[in-house]
Automatic annotation (TrEMBL):
Name by which UniProt lists this protein: N-acetyltransferase domain-containing protein
Length: 55
């Protein structure tokens, strides 16, 4: 259902003339979400890193 919602939203945005959109912060190990984004024509253009300091 999530994938269908993203596809419908992307198609409607393109029909309305949008050229770009941002999907918020999606972790690089979120394989399912990244796969959906790429399948609907999305491009990963930023990568954020989260580090943890262990004492």
């Amino acid at each position: 259902i999530d994938a269908l919602m993203y596809v419908e939203a992307a198609e409607e945005a393109f029909r309305k003339g949008y050229k770009r959109c941002e999907m918020s912060m999606i972790l690089e190990d979120n394989v399912m979400m990244n796969r959906i984004i790429q399948r609907i024509g999305g491009e990963i253009y930023k990568t954020y890193r989260i580090y943890e300091m262990v004492f």
